[in-house]
Design goal:
Layout (H helix, E strand, L loop, with lengths): L3 H8 L3 H8 L7 H13 L6 H8 L5 E6 L7 H18 L3 E6 L6 H9 L4 E5 L5 H9 L4 E4 L9 E4 L2 H14 L5 E5 L6 H16 L9 E3 L4 H13 L6 E4 L2 H13 L8 E5 L3 H5 L3 E4 L2 H16 L9 E3 L3 E3 L9
Parallel strand pairs: 1-2, 1-3, 3-4, 4-5, 5-11, 6-7, 6-8, 8-9, 9-10
Antiparallel strand pairs: 10-12
Helix pairs in contact: 1-2, 1-3, 5-13, 8-9, 10-11
Protein name: LacI family transcriptional regulator
Keywords: DNA-binding, Transcription, Transcription regulation
InterPro entries: HTH_LacI, LacI/GalR-like_sensor, Lambda_DNA-bd_dom_sf, Peripla_BP_I
């Protein structure tokens, strides 16, 4: 693909002169301007829309999507739902998308992106519990939406299921099936708001039913199959192993099932409920809390673009979408 440097070289002018001619600026002679434009057409030169927008108006229609750092194991299973949902709305509203990721608390990278002017708004998927960054965005009156409940003390727009309630209801369903020794496995650190909320709902359900909370029944992993195996191996080694398990990702749950087989057991011996109902959960017969990620993504994009359209500060909005327990083979009563 030809660049403006190629056009300038072929026309025998400087890059600055080529840029002025192609943007209709400067005091170039009509002959020089025509020569540059003809050369650009001959080379099939297409200006970079992003760069041009930043230079001319700082109003390029690009929204940024901030995700966890690559390597988050469960991201590939929801990534297409996220990008597909946001992309559908962005395309409809004539917006581009830019994908980036968080590297940890502190938000320097995010704030640098905002100050660069490359994006007009941000959608955060699985944001960290980063109060400092979100307050800084509020101070800048910069449009952003969380695909998660915001941290305590942060006033912003967000879209999500009620993860506290979803985990609470999942745990209660196991308690009603006779289970009192119930474990919780997170696919990532509790720094993630989603993980924190689900852990909170799990704990609340136990305490509200007079079941003691036991740290040995909680594991924090990477969301992959090996983490699921390690968690199950740990649980089975306990003097009183849990009879039911809540897995924060489909891969964790699959790892747990594989570990059961390695120990001469199967899904009839332990109840398992997972979050984020992907085709994997269905194919393995794993009971799941269905999170409509695509719907959450679409609503987040619509809300963000709506906020971008306001030049003054507007009141934040939040949208809560229902989650649903899908009962499959791994939902078994206590023995």
């Amino acid at each position: 693909m030809a660049t403006i440097k190629d056009v300038a070289k072929a026309a025998g002018v400087s890059i600055a002169a080529a840029s002025l001619a192609l943007n209709g600026k400067g005091s170039l002679s009509e002959e020089t301007r025509a020569k540059i434009i003809e050369t650009a057409e001959r080379l099939n030169y297409k200006p970079n829309a992003l760069a041009k927008g930043l230079v001319t108006s700082n109003k390029i229609n690009t929204i940024g999507i901030i995700i966890p750092k690559p390597g988050t194991e469960f991201l590939p299973f929801v990534g297409m739902d996220i990008l597909g949902g946001i992309g559908e709305v962005a395309n409809e509203k004539k917006y581009n998308m830019l994908l980036d990721w968080e590297e940890g608390l502190g938000g320097t990278k995010v704030l640098d992106l905002v100050r660069s002017g490359i994006v007009r708004g941000l959608v955060f998927f699985l944001p960290l519990n980063d109060v400092t960054t979100f307050r800084a965005l509020n101070d800048l009156n910069f449009p952003y939406v969380l695909m998660s409940r915001p941290p305590e003390g942060v006033y912003c727009s967000w879209v999500d299921v009620d993860n506290v309630d979803a985990a609470y209801q999942a745990t209660v369903s196991l308690i009603k099936a006779g289970h009192t020794r119930i474990s919780f496995s997170s696919p990532g650190p509790i720094d993630f708001l989603v993980s924190s909320d689900r852990h909170s709902g799990y704990r609340q359900a136990l305490l509200s039913h007079n079941i003691a909370y036991d740290e040995s029944y909680v594991s924090i992993g990477n969301g992959d199959i090996q983490s699921g195996k390690a968690a199950m191996t740990h649980f089975l080694s306990l003097k009183e192993p849990p009879t039911a398990l809540i897995a924060g990702s489909n891969l964790l749950a699959i790892g747990m099932l594989e570990s059961l087989k390695e120990h001469g057991l199967d899904h009839r011996d332990k109840a398992i409920i997972t979050f984020d109902d992907s085709p994997l959960a269905e194919s393995y017969g794993i009971s799941a809390i269905h999170i409509p990620t695509n719907t959450i993504a679409k609503e987040s994009a619509r809300l963000l673009i709506k906020r971008i359209g306001h030049t003054r500060r507007v009141e934040p909005e939040n949208i809560v979408i229902d989650a649903q327990l899908i009962v499959r083979n791994t939902f078994v009563p206590a023995r």
